[in-house]
Design a protein that fits this description.
single chain, Uridine Diphospho-n-acetylenolpyruvylglucosamine Reductase, domain 2, Uridine Diphospho-n-acetylenolpyruvylglucosamine Reductase, domain 3, Vanillyl-alcohol Oxidase, Chain A, domain 3
Length: 505
């Protein structure tokens, strides 16, 4: 059995810690004064402070391959007072602070690339209020996404954002990355549901942005600026989200295609017909086979692609839209079209799509997953480009994603110890992003920039756009201590490191 990348990394990191002369990836590890540790333990709780090398290993990475750091200390406050105390110590000791949720991110955003303090928010995990009169829910940053969803559902209400990691990811992390999910096409992403935020700047300033008002145009929208800021501007501790009524009915359809370009054409035609499904997901042949190996639910291995389509809403509208989707699928000559017989089968199909990354990750020690997004009318062209580049670079790529909103996740399966192959993988993605940007697309639809995409972001925005972002960062964090090394290409890169996309930036 081949071990996933993370196990190789843990072994290498542990060995490096036992051999002080080795300096992997430019990490640093500072032994903090015992007085400092004792102060933290007193203020935050002894069980919430980790400072031994072996304990810190797990806080040096997130779900992104090839990227790792090493903190000097990890602190997990249980309340705002503990968080304030941790920030006070970080300022006094001159420590960088890396906010961290469940670390399911895929761009290195919660990696302590410059050491310092990892500030974990997972123990601030209380749902404060469900306001049924104003249709809002207020929760601390560490609440797990699916727990928030279930709490709303228990009151007959609906929280639509559903990132693939919803069983693990936290609300604060979702807000910091502006997470999307399977229902993003119809219902939007996390930003569309955030009404208010509270938290702290690095200097200890407490902020409150937004409120429960449906309309509010007073001053700059700091709330919208903080959503998607990846922990580089402020530490989010509490969030108020809006809730909506759940759909009354839904139908799930599954369509198989001999080639993926036809599946892309079907997506474009469905949207052009002004049918907006709640879910419109795609998996290519490689992904289908990986999922079938993993879940064994009877997916046909010989098909080039499948579309998972869910329409929801009022029963009459659902029936009309389901029939409209079926007619389009027949028009483009999908090979097989079937409708889920019941809610149980529909849930099984959706669950199979959610396992796509896990299923692909079993194929090889390293999975490098990207987040290319294009206008929906260019999907078929994008699939053709992915196939061409796969052949050009001789690599294996599984493609799946949220086809309905143009957000694709081409995922290379490789082994990071094979540097020559990994170099070809990065060349593949570099060429793909050139094509994506030429189509008017974006280098990230939902995974953020973090460390992994700094070079690509420069290509998209240019020096002028990046300069504006730097000014905003400086206004919030003039000393550059909050989640440093993220978003901007020339910050926080150890000598000899290679950041994807930088050569053509």
């Amino acid at each position: 059995m081949r071990l996933p990348t993370i196990y190789f990394c843990i072994i290498e990191r542990f060995e490096s810690l036992l051999e002080p002369e080795r300096e992997p990836c430019g990490w640093r590890y500072a032994v903090l004064n015992k007085t400092v540790i004792d102060h933290l333990r007193q203020k935050v709780g002894a069980g919430n402070v980790y400072h031994e090398r072996e304990d810190l290993l797990v806080y040096g990475y997130d779900a992104t391959p090839e990227i790792a750091g090493f903190p000097d200390v990890a602190v997990f406050p249980e309340n705002r007072e503990g968080l304030q105390a941790a920030l006070e110590v970080s300022r006094r000791e001159g420590l960088a602070v890396t906010p961290r949720g469940a670390a399911t991110g895929l761009s290195g955003g919660s990696t302590p690339f410059q050491g310092g303090m990892v500030l974990g928010l997972t123990r601030m995990n209380r749902i404060r209020e469900i306001d049924e009169e104003n249709l809002t829910l207020t929760a601390e940053a560490g609440v797990i996404t699916v727990d928030l969803f279930n709490a709303a559902a228990a009151k007959g209400l609906f929280y639509p954002p559903d990132p693939g990691s919803q069983n693990v990811s936290t609300l604060g992390g979702n807000v910091a990355e502006n997470a999307g999910g399977l229902r993003g096409l119809k219902y939007g992403v996390t930003r569309n549901y955030v009404m208010a935020l509270s938290g702290f700047l690095y200097d200890g300033t407490e902020f409150h942005a937004g409120n429960k008002c449906v309309k509010d145009v007073a001053g700059y929208s700091l709330r919208d600026l903080l959503v998607g800021s990846e922990g580089t501007l402020g530490i989010i501790t509490e969030v108020t989200v809006r809730l909506i009524n759940p759909p009354q009915d839904k139908r799930t359809l599954l369509a198989y295609f001999r080639d993926i370009r036809t599946a892309g054409e079907a997506v474009s035609k469905i949207i052009a017909a002004r049918i907006i499904p709640a879910t419109l997901e795609i998996m290519d042949k490689t992904t289908i086979n990986c999922v079938e190996d993993y879940a064994g639910i009877g997916l046909p291995r010989d098909m080039g692609a499948l579309l998972l389509i869910e329409v929801d809403g009022h029963p009459a509208v659902v029936a009309e839209e389901a029939e409209g989707v079926r007619k389009i699928l027949e028009e483009v000559r999908a090979d097989v079209i079937r409708q889920a017989a019941n809610a149980e089968e529909a849930a099984q199909l959706a669950a199979a799509r959610r396992t796509a990354l896990s299923a692909v990750a079993r194929v090889s020690p390293t999975t490098i997953l990207e987040d290319a997004t294009v206008p929906r009318s260019r999907l078929a062209e994008t699939f053709a480009e992915i196939e061409r580049l796969k052949e050009k670079y001789g690599i294996r790529v599984a493609t799946f994603g949220h086809a309905g909103d143009g957000n694709l996740h081409p995922t290379a399966v490789t082994d990071e110890r094979n540097r020559e192959e990994v170099a070809r993988v990065h060349a593949f993605f570099s060429d793909l992003y050139e094509k994506v940007l030429s189509m008017g697309g974006t280098v990230s639809g939902e995974h953020g920039i973090g460390i992994a995409k700094k070079g690509y972001l420069l290509r998209q925005f240019g020096e002028g756009g990046i300069g504006v972002m730097r000014r905003i960062k400086h206004a919030f964090d003039p000393d550059g201590r909050l989640n440093p090394g993220k978003i901007f290409l020339d910050e926080g890169i150890p000598a000899g490191s290679k950041i994807p996309g930088e050569t053509n930036g």
